[in-house]
Amino acid sequence: GISFRIQIIVKELLDTDVLLKLLFHLPVNYPSTLPDISVNSDQLTRAQCMDVKDKLLEQAKKHLSEPMVHDLILWIQQHLKDVIKQSATVCNEKTTLSKGTSTEDGIWMLLLHLDHMRAKGKYVKTVEKWASDLRLTGRLMFMGKIILILLQGDRSSIKEYLILQKTSKVDVDSSGKKCKEKMMSVLCDTKVQSQHKRFQTFEVKEYSTPKELQKEFDTAGLTTLFSEFVPPLLK
């Protein structure tokens, strides 16, 4: 499939212009399959951005099997104000629900392996921001030349993180030009099980030895995950 970004300004909303940054990933069998959509805006909260995304996907279903991106952009320009108002109402209702309720898909876990980071400082800040925006917890782990990203959170947020990781210019190439991540491996993408402990925060950590790294996995109840995927990387 292909990915492309579109930025649109919606005027006279919330007493300010809202700049919407939309990322569409069109799978190979689009438009028979819905596109993946990511929504960002400095003027909206993360929850509002997620609501905008959900509404766009609802509209996309009405246009299945026909080109839809242009129609979706026109629709959100006309209806953003209503979506934001509705978002505030839903948000207030949700606070009355028990905190134990989870999303339909439950909590998901993702383990990624990166080959290298040339612009490490910028790359790390980008990963931290994405994790924060998408309410993901976990670890960005460095041990020697090994770089692992372990994430936990809603299934939809995990999917959105993967799109960002694959399509954004997060690093620089050998000549110093910004480039996308082309050497990432998805080691594991699975539902969190009862024996797994939940990370409460997202942290960047460095480890001196494989034993230290393994202890991080052991503490989280992820011993099997470590033994299955990490030892081959140490060779």
What does this structure look like?
- The protein is of the alpha+beta class.
- It is built from 7 helices and 10 strands.
- The strands form 3 sheets. The chain has a 5-stranded mixed sheet. A 3-stranded antiparallel sheet has the order 1-2-3, sandwiched between helices.
- A hairpin with a 2-residue loop joins β1 (2-13) and β2 (16-26).
- It is globular, with a radius of gyration of 19 Å.
- The two termini are 34 Å apart.
- Residues 91-104 have low confidence and may be disordered.
- This is RWD domain-containing protein 3.
- Keywords: Cytoplasm, Nucleus.
Quick structural summary:
By secondary structure, the chain is an alpha+beta fold. The protein is built from seven helices and ten strands. A hairpin with a 2-residue loop joins β5 (137-143) and β6 (146-154).
What tags apply to this protein structure?
39% helix, alpha+beta, Alpha-Beta Plaits, Ubiquitin Conjugating Enzyme, 235 residues, 2 domains, 7 helices, 5-stranded mixed beta sheet
Helical content (DSSP H or I, runs of 4+): 25-40%
For the record, the CATH architecture of the largest domain stands as 2-Layer Sandwich
Structural class: alpha+beta
Give unreliable regions as ranges.
91-104
Residue share in β-strands: 25-35%
Q: How many domain units?
A: 2
Topology:
Blueprint: E1 2-13, E2 16-26, E3 36-40, H1 46-62, H2 69-94, E4 107-114, H3 120-133, E5 137-143, E6 146-154, H4 155-167, E7 169-172, E8 178-180, E9 184-191, E10 202-207, H5 210-219, H6 223-229, H7 231-234
Parallel strand pairs: 5-10
Antiparallel strand pairs: 1-2, 2-3, 4-6, 4-9, 5-6, 7-8
Helix pairs in contact: 1-2, 5-6
